[in-house]
Amino acid sequence: MNPNNYIEFNKASWNQKTQLHFDSEFYNNAAFIDGKNSLNEIELNLLGDVTGKSILHLQCHFGQDTLSLQRMGANVTGVDFSEAAIEKAKLLNDQLGLNANFICCDLYSLPDYLQNEKFDIVFTSYGTIGWLPDIDKWASIVAQYLKPDGKFIFAEFHPVIWMYDNDFTKITYSYFKQDAIIETESGSYASRESGEPFTTITWNHSIGEVVSALTKQGLKVNHLQEYDYSPYNCMSFLTESEPGKFRIKEMDNFVPIVYSLVAER
User: Fold this and answer.
1) DSSP H or E run through 137
2) pLDDT > 70: what percent of the chain?
3) Which tens digit of pLDDT belongs to each residue from 51-85?
4) Over the Cα atoms of the chain, what is R_g?
5) pLDDT of residue 250
6) How many domains are contained in the chain?
7) Residue 194 clears pLDDT 70, i.e. is over it
8) Residue 123 belongs to a domain with what CATH number?
9) Domain that holds residue 175
10) Which residues contact 158 (CB under 8 A, 6 or more apart)?
11) CA 183 to chain centre
């Protein structure tokens, strides 16, 4: 399989997973529609008061976080390459009477769809950059859309956990970006319902790679924090050791699971 075809395979997998996710207990759309904010404490603390601010949300899936930001008073544009996800995002937007903007395209081609616009905040979170092969190009997109004094706010799973196999019993992959990781599976982190198997192509990206890519774009990283828990029960062998904090069984708080970063112009 040619990793250069990653968009084709990954888009097909996310189109397939979107309906499972939309109907899942994990995303709990009923509670979201009733007013639950889908954002977590980690990113809420970094975002602060977003009233009146313009936000570009990259890799937004079907838009719960995008629409949560809109409910908080921001003017938000969400971007995702999955047609099925953007369709659901627009459905929720209309159902809730909100006015978020959604764009369907792969991240690297965003300048073909969104031109001459700058944002107070560029935001992305949890399980996003692993789908991208070129972090320098990703950082250039982030920088392109930031206003002077704008902020990039990022929360992501820590690259250490992507080194392990799915059962967290052994180290299988390098911490550093090497060859593409090609996997075929069914179900997902949000729904264990099996369907047609799908193939995904991903890459590991170290924190050093991320920070270097952002600084090469002239951005100053002024916050970098690691966390020993996940706010989501989204992997095998996680246990809720505190309310809303999930850690790897047998590893307790010995390994980082999430990190957050803020970079400014």
Assistant:
1) helix 135-144
2) 98
3) 999 999 999 999 999 999 999 999 999 999 999 99
4) 18
5) 85
6) 1
7) no
8) 3.40.50.150
9) 3-264
10) 207, 226, 227, 255, 256, 257, 258, 259
11) 19
